[in-house]
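Fold Annotation — chain and its backbone

Encoding — discrete vocabulary of local shapes
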Amino acid sequence: MQSSSEGNGKRHLVVNRSVALPVRDLERLRALLRGRLEAVRVYLAYLQELDEALTRAEIIEGDAPPRDVVSVGSRVLVQDVHTGERISYELVFPSEPQRQDARQESVELPVLAPLALALLGRREGEQLEWRFPRGARLLEIAMIGRGDATGAAEAARGEDATLVAPMAAAFG
């Protein structure tokens, strides 16, 4: 492989020769490639589902979605129905900068992440089955809040204003 550059300053790889590799490296690279291709196929399926959901979306007038519907900017408290484990996610656009707050009260979840896509548009109290690396879990959307007003909303309902300390691996 050689590197070439076009007038736009971007570098592209050009494959115009055979590559000499030991059998072990070739097998490992092929296995790695198969895994990545499968991950891309799965992710593409999620994106296609999102595209289809957007074509069927109920359009809400104004900028504020109903408080009980998960949308971008929502802070969502998700609870495992069987174990009671809870974790709070905040759905964000991928281009939004990550917060540097040491007291981060929820795990930021880019809206195009598969779990975020599964949560998007759901209502408080809904349940969904989600497959985590350690197996499938039945999750319930326990609470939905919005941005900085979230703490006040939970406090008014008698909930912990922090929702739950981040537990990034809790459902891992």
